[in-house]
């Protein structure tokens, strides 16, 4: 009888450990698109940001300048993920139009990461909005 009780207890521990979720350190929470986002005196709505993300997705395999890789050299987003940038403009950016200084930053799967703007007079460095 004692053998069966020990076996049952051990089997229960194994079942619980297999069924329990394990922490994954590869998971990064998806950022929520703010509404509104105010950056350097410019206000962007959630819809404007979302529409830019959708345009980036639509132009993914085009030969246009955007979307293009965002190298995150300043490590402003603190993620090792591959990131992409696309002009944030109103109306939505299209090829042949000046892209301006604001960019929406997304992951490979087009999950929103954030928005950047160029620092005035810095030669191209950017900051997180």
Fraction of helical residues: 10-25%
Mean pLDDT: 81
Structural class label: alpha+beta
- List low-confidence stretches: 13-28
Kindly provide the radius of gyration, computed on alpha-carbon positions and rounded to a whole number of angstroms: 23 Å
CATH class: Alpha Beta
Q: Helix segment count?
A: 2
List the helices and strands in order: HEEHEEEEE
CATH architectural type: Roll
Q: Please describe the biggest sheet, giving its number of strands, its sense, and whether it closes into a barrel.
A: 5 strands, antiparallel
Q: Any idea how many domains?
A: 1
Q: Say what the CATH topology is.
A: Nuclear Transport Factor 2, Chain: A
How are the strands of the biggest sheet laid out side by side?
3-4-5-6-7
Strand % is 15-25%
Note the gap between the termini.
67 Å
Query: Which word captures the global form?
Result: globular
Query: So what's the oligomer here?
Result: single chain
Tell me about this structure.
With 129 residues, this protein is of the alpha+beta class. It has a single domain, classed as Nuclear Transport Factor 2, Chain: A (Roll), CATH 3.10.450. 24% of the residues lie in helices and 22% in strands. The strands form two sheets. It has a five-stranded antiparallel β-sheet with strand order 3-4-5-6-7, covered by helices on one side. The longest helix is centred in the first third of the chain and has 18 residues.
């Amino acid at each position: 009888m004692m053998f069966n009780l020990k076996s049952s207890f051990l089997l229960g521990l194994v079942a619980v450990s297999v069924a329990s979720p394990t922490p994954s350190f590869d998971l990064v929470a998806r950022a929520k698109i703010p509404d509104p986002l105010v950056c350097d005196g410019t206000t962007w709505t959630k819809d404007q940001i979302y529409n830019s993300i959708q345009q980036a997705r639509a132009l993914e395999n085009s030969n246009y300048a955007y979307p293009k890789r965002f190298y995150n050299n300043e490590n402003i987003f603190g993620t090792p993920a591959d990131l992409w940038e696309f002009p944030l403009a109103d109306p939505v950016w299209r090829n042949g139009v000046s892209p301006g200084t604001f960019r929406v930053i997304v992951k490979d799967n087009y999950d929103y990461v954030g928005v950047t703007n160029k620092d005035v007079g810095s030669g191209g460095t950017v900051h997180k909005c």
